[in-house]
Amino acid sequence: MSNPDGLLVDIAAMVESEHNNQMSLTVVVPGAVITGRLAPVALWWERVAEVLQSSEHLKPFAALFTRPAEGPPARPTHLHLHRARILQGDFGLPHTGGMYRIAIKDISSWTVGDLSYSDT
Fold this sequence. Notes:
Blueprint: H1 6-18, E1 24-29, E2 32-38, H2 41-53, E3 78-88, E4 91-103, E5 109-112
Antiparallel strand pairs: 1-2, 1-5, 2-3, 3-4
């Protein structure tokens, strides 16, 4: 989407301003459907740094995510999802959810809520 959806940008800005990570969202990007919870960028960076710090091989990269935050841009350009899964067939990858950063301009469609599969 070369012209980002204004409503989606407003939702991301509200998540940032209220530091709320309870908004579930599902987005369609080229080649994938991703579902998860929006997170403020500072929280997202902190969680990514924790994961990297706990890995002996990836620990040096943690510093990239722990530098002082310059504050969010006036208008968000990316969504930061946690507990996110790429929906594939009848399951989500990774099963436990992951951390995804998605450029808002690349989202072709979206819906509020976390999609999941059911056997019923």
